[in-house]
Amino acid sequence: MAIEAFAPAKINLTLHVTGQRDDGYHLLDSLVVFAGIGDTIRVVPSDALTLEIDGPEAGGLSAEPDNLVLRAARLLAPGRGAAITLTKRLPVASGIGGGSADAAATLGAMSKLWDLPMPGAKQVLTLGADVPVCLSTSPARMRGIGERLDPVPPLPEMDIVLVNPRVAVSTPAVFRALEIKENPPMEPDLPCWRDLPAFISWLGGQRNDLAAPATAQQPVIGDVLDALRDAGALFASMSGSGATCFGLFPPDGHSAKSVAKAVLFLEHPEWWCTHGRVL
Ligand SMILES: C[C@](O)(CO)[C@H](O)COP(=O)(O)OP(=O)(O)OC[C@H]1O[C@@H](n2ccc(N)nc2=O)[C@H](O)[C@@H]1O
Ligand SMILES: Nc1ncnc2c1ncn2[C@@H]1O[C@H](COP(=O)(O)OP(=O)(O)OP(=O)(O)O)[C@@H](O)[C@H]1O
User: Fold this and answer.
1) Residue 98 · residue 92 · CB < 8 Å
2) Looking at the whole model, is its pTM more than 0.80?
3) Same-domain pairing of 114 and 171
4) CB–CB of 97/129 below 8 Å?
5) Is any ligand 2 atom within 6 A of the Cβ of residue 76?
6) What's the rounded Cα separation, in Å, for the pair 125 and 271?
7) CATH code of residue 17
8) Which residues belong to any copy of the GHMP kinase N-terminal domain (predicted)?
């Protein structure tokens, strides 16, 4: 029996850094969504725990024991064997939570395979601050360091273009470079957006507080945002600690596709660029 699980890209549509804990971790207030773009995990029973990585982004990663897929498998079922295949499509260390999504998908697949309960919230968080939100793959308001999750009002349908300029950004380095650690959160109750224009207009008043320090380290992030805006994105920003940026488009099935395939692909073939639907 093989179990397959999709590990979708996580996108921080907003990312407000609201404080810092004594242990150095930052407090966040973030509207997180997922896209129909991601990695795949395939698990089959086996005597030993093994990992094979294939897919277009496999080169960015090795199947070392500290791979988040193997760490998740060991956390859920210590000592049990499984042959896991990770098909890597999301660029590594790019702000769209690839490793966290893989860990969450592995936990889900392994718990089905072995009929085991999922680990508790505290244990899940030890795999990464983004793993709890990646377990649900539905839009959420994420607070604390990533452990406090609340549902959000229904979001309008939208398409998304993701662009990574192929520069690595270190999450700890970007957090460290953030000068002001206490910034305002989002409003206590998120509004009920009546349609896509209302949602876009609301997003225009939000922030990603990590965008400035990330762009200072990798100025090409500014070029990516300009390219998305010039191409007609309704809204463009950076996800997580970067360097991946996203542009939002009407859910008409062709706007995002033509921007991703024609404009950006032709203008910047050196960038990673893809499109999909916001889930
Ligand atoms: C920036 C975000 O992508 C927003 O969703 C996440 O908070 C990062 O989540 P992640 O990559 O799963 O993060 P982890 O692997 O847990 O942490 C990597 C490093 O980022 C910093 N870190 C992470 C999350 C957080 N709330 N505060 C932090 O300061 C810490 O230096 C930590 O050592
Ligand atoms: N399965 C995995 N996929 C991606 N990265 C992994 C994986 N396992 C371990 N890692 C390591 O985790 C680190 C973060 O990778 P990841 O792709 O999750 O970053 P990210 O997209 O910036 O995440 P976030 O948005 O949560 O900050 C990298 O240094 C990478 O080597």
Assistant:
1) yes
2) yes
3) no
4) no
5) no
6) 31
7) 3.30.230.10
8) 67-129
Could you give the 3-state DSSP secondary structure of residue 232? coil
Number of structural domains (the chain) is 2
**100 C-alpha vs ligand 2 centroid, how far in Å?**
7
Q: Which residues approach ligand 1 with their CB closer than 6 A?
A: 12, 15, 25-26, 28, 30, 95, 100, 128-130, 145-146, 171-172, 175, 240-241
Amino acid identity at 178: L
Q: Within this chain, do residues 10 and 116 fall inside the same structural domain, yes or no?
A: yes
ipTM value, please give it: 0.95
> In the listed set 144, 161, 193, which residue is the last one of a domain according to the structure?
144
pLDDT tens digits along 133-154: 999 999 999 999 999 999 999 9
157 closest CA partner among 35, 278, 12 = 278
- For residue 57 and ligand 2, the question of a CB distance below 6 A is answered with no
95 ligand 2 Cβ < 6 A = yes
- Cβ atoms of residues 93 and 242 within 8 Å: no
